[in-house]
Amino acid sequence: MTTFAKETVVCGACGHVFTHQALASTNAFGSPDLDTRPPEMQRSTMRAWIQRCPSCGFCARDASKFDARFRVAMDTSCYRSQLTDARFPELASTFICSGMLAEAVGQREDSGWCYLRAAWILDDASKDELAKLWRSKAADAFLAFLTEGQTSVQQPGAYEAIVTDCLRRAGRGDEAVSVIERGLMQACEQVIHKVLALQRKLIQRGDTARHLLQEALEDEEPPA
Length: 224
Fold this sequence. Notes:
By secondary structure, this protein is mainly alpha-helical. Helices cover 49% and strands 9% of the residues. The protein has helices at residues 70-74, 77-83, 90-104, 108-124, 128-147, 158-169, 173-184, 190-204, 213-218; strands at residues 3-10, 17-25, 51-52, 59-60. Helix 6 (158-169) runs antiparallel to helix 7.
C-alpha cells in the first residue's frame, strides 16, 4: 500500500510556505523497466519525488535548500516558459525545470535523472515525441557525466546499461552500441551482461519501445 504525509516546506528561493505530499510508504510488484523505472505501486508516486514552489516556481527534490547559483537559470525565459508550457503535464515540467537548474550548476547526473523522469511522465501522457526529446537530453547529460570518468552506480556496466536504454529509446542506436561495448568490456555481473546483450538485440531490430528487466533475465543468448 502507498501512503502519503503532508509536510510543510519553506521555499529556499523566496520564503513562501507551502505543503507537499511526501511519500510515507509504498511497495512495488513486478519488474522495473530497463531504464530503472519501478513497477506499480511505486511507479505512481512520482509526484512525491519532487517539490515545486507555487509562488516562485523553484523546483527541486528539497525546495527548502537553495543554491544561489540557481537564480540566474530561474530567471531565464527558457525556465519560465517551461513552467507553464501547455504541451507538458505539470509534473513533467517540474522535473525538467529541476533538471535545468542542476545542469546550470554542473550537476549533470542529477539533471539526467530529472530529464529521464520527465520522459516517463510524457510516456504515460502519450507525448511520444516529447518523451523522445527529453530522453535524448537525459542521455546527453549521462554521457557527459561518463566522459568525466564518473559514475554513481557501483556495479560495473550498470551505468552504461541505463545510458544505453536512454539512447536506444531516443532513436540513437548507433551511439548506444558503443556504450554497450564499453559496458561489456568491464567485469560486469551476469544480470548487467544480459541487459546489455538484450539492448544490442533490440537495437539491431530497430526496437525503440519500453522493455522490462525481466525480459533480459529470461533471454537466452545464443552460444558464442
